[in-house]
Amino acid sequence: MLKWSKIRGQARPLEILSTALDADRVHHAYLFTGMEGVGKFLTAQTLSAVVNCERRPEGAFQDACGACRSCRKIVDWKHPDILPVRPTKGTIKIGQIRDIQKASNRAPYEARVRFVLIDDAHTMTDEAANALLKTLEEPAQRMRLILVTDQPHRLLETILSRCQAIRFDRLDEALVTELLREILAEKQEEDALEDLTDLSVAAGYGEGSLGRSLAVIESGMLKGRKDFIGKVVNLSAGQPVALLDLAEDLKSSRDEMTSRLDVLMLFFRDVMLYKAAEDSTRLVNSDLRMQIQALSERMEMEDILDIIDEIRQAQRYLLANVNSQLIAEELLGQIRRRRA
């Protein structure tokens, strides 16, 4: 069910929408910005349900009933007047925007107000963005547009100026930990926690994003995290075969390598933070505090920063489709040399 209470840690956006609903003056176009996975698109869908709930009195900030025909259709994405627009093969194309324009020329089929929810709006092609601009300049009376993005700088200034921007905040890690437990319990996937020493580690990897944290758990990247980090930091100069074997393991697949590079980045970030301040409260890998402390005491800050730069370079090489085996071997060799 789409309820305002499901949107956690976003008091300011809800306050803005509450004011608009209480005055029955929902803006014709909103821009929901903020990092991915903090509730932007859920808020957009919830707003569309609340406005169109058949049992909610207009001019009141309250939950949609969840039981009327409109609510049921919106929850299931079967409502003809709630139109989600998402990237196809990485972009939103002009044909998708033209469909919006056609919809704006006719009255809603069933809804009080038609909603168009454009996810990852920054992926619009130039042609699509210019076509959307025409719709924003001449908004239909019974249509509202919500653009959702974590990269508003990639949108045209003329589009930004025609939308009311609402910024969504990063979520507190304690809240993400709580939400992860609730989600896994609802899905009856408590067994997914067996390999996690602490859900706060997953929350830390998400860096304030519930979506990212959940993806970390579902990908399984944390399951072999301790073993993998241990092999990397304990690699010695007299083990060339071990380095090659670890490099082979690191580059097992492009997605897997991306995840493992993220693991190494966050681990050495923790080492850097501990070296700088000896503060364990900010560690992402809080369950590896003893290992982080020991490594920070053995290494110079310059070497830690160099390793972080090497990991960033490896990430860039991977995106550029450089041979992943060579990337892995070079990175591990650099880490071994600077850790020695």
From TrEMBL:
Molecular function terms from GO: 3'-5' exonuclease activity; DNA binding; DNA-directed DNA polymerase activity
Reaction(s) catalysed by this chain's protein: DNA(n) + a 2'-deoxyribonucleoside 5'-triphosphate = DNA(n+1) + diphosphate
Swiss-Prot/TrEMBL GO biological process terms: DNA-templated DNA replication
GO CC, alphabetical: DNA polymerase III complex
Pfam families from the UniProt entry: DNA_pol3_delta2, DNApol3-delta_C
Keyword annotations: DNA replication, DNA-directed DNA polymerase, Nucleotidyltransferase, Transferase
Record-listed E.C. numbers: 2.7.7.7
Leader sequence residues: none
Domain of life: Bacteria
SUPFAM superfamilies the UniProt entry points to: P-loop containing nucleoside triphosphate hydrolases
Database matches in InterPro entries: DNA_pol_HolB, DNA_pol_III_delta_C, DNA_Rep/Repair_Clamp_Loader, P-loop_NTPase
NCBIfam families linked to this entry: holB (TIGR00678)
PANTHER family, sorted: DNA POLYMERASE III SUBUNIT DELTA (PTHR11669:SF8), REPLICATION FACTOR C / DNA POLYMERASE III GAMMA-TAU SUBUNIT (PTHR11669)
UniProt protein name: DNA polymerase III subunit delta'
Organism: Bradymonas sediminis
